[in-house]
Structure formats: C-alpha cells, structure tokens
Amino acid sequence: MPDFPPLFRGLDCAGTCPVTAAIAAGQAGADPGLVCYDLAGDRLRAAILFAPEVPLAQAAVMLPLCAVGFQNALGTLAPPVVAIHLGWDGNIYVNGGRCGELTLHAPDCAGDATPDWLVIGLTLDLWPRDTEGGASPDQTALYAEGCAEVAAPDLLSAWVRHSLSWLDTWTHDGPAPLHRDYVGLVHCMGEDVTLAGRSAHLLGLDESFGALLRSGDDTTLVPLTTLIKETA
C-alpha cells in the first residue's frame, strides 16, 4: 500500500475516479492532504486535495509543481536511461511517448480570488492499451519503457513526497527554483506545439509559468489558469 508523509492521508477509490472523489471532498470542506487513488493493474490514477492560501492565479502553480514532483519521483525509481519530460498542458512523456497526464481542478472563481479547494489529478498508463502498438504510435506506457520494476504504490508515495518537498521550497524560496527546474523539463520547448487550442512556437514561460507562444510576428501569453477544469 502507498506510504504517505505526515499530514497526508490516503483514500482507496477501488475502481472509481480519484479526481471526482477529491473534488467532492474539497466541496464538502475536507481538510487538505487527502490523496485519493485507484491502483489498477494497467493504470495508476490519483488526486491530491489542496487548500490554497493564495489567489487562484498563483495557486495554479500546483500543476507544474506536482509535475516536477512526479518527474523527480519517477526519476528516482526508473532506470537512469529513461527520459521523463513534462508537457506544459499536463501531459507526461516517457522516452518521447505520451504516457499519462496531470490535470488541474478548482472551483469557478476569479483569478484574484482564493479558491476553497484545488485538486491535482494524475493518470499514468502502466501497460499499453494498444497491444499492437500501431494505432497510437505516439502513446506509450511505463512498463513498456523499461520500468517494469517500478511498483505503482511506491511511485504514488514518491510523487506525494517529492511534491511536498517542492511545495516547501515554493513556500519558503518563492517560484524561482521551481521555474528553473521546470523549464528544463518542458516537452517541446523551443518547438512548434499545439497548446490550449493554439498552434504556435513555444518560446518559453513567463515568471508565473504561463506559456509564451509565437505565431508569425505575434506573441501570446497563455496563463496556467487556462488549464483549470472544475470537474473530472
């Protein structure tokens, strides 16, 4: 079973959606630190409930924060030759193939308002859904990339621990250390991408982790709040 750090507690969703359970807990006023999870044989699903103390526009940093936490967690458990990158939109890439995603959920409120709750969801394919490997050549799964020894409960526990560590760093040192590490992990940085319905060149990130996209002579800033989903 997963082993969570102090102030975090687990809830086994046993085949139901962890994000839905975490959102319902947040709406009911549950304390933060709840980790809902579903450890199926072919897929890991989980969600962490937070209670932000900053406005939504700042609290959205939990998406890249938990993404770097996941990269660090898998990096400690996977063989050193395995490459792990993070899509700005939450996608997770292992050896260049999309392997899962992180999602950001919060109640509908203004960016300068502090939300009552915030949930980060994680979905990770452990075994390929396309057994032939031809229908979705850009998709992969963790155990198809040389990570068969990575146990899902250990990875989930490590994700929470590393995310907590980054949360402490962000709280005490500000966003600069996280920004530095995250920029180096973003998939397709400096390349043409499609993000938030826009096809453009990904120039970089601003100080608030928003994506800077260039199309022709125009540069557009896409804030993290664009990625917020209220429901699962």
From TrEMBL:
Residues 4-183 form the BPL/LPL catalytic domain. Transmembrane segments: none annotated. It comes from the Bacteria. Pfam families: BPL_LplA_LipB_2 (PF16917), DUF4444 (PF14563). Residues 189-229 form the DUF4444 domain. Signal peptide: none annotated. This is DUF4444 domain-containing protein. It comes from Loktanella gaetbuli.
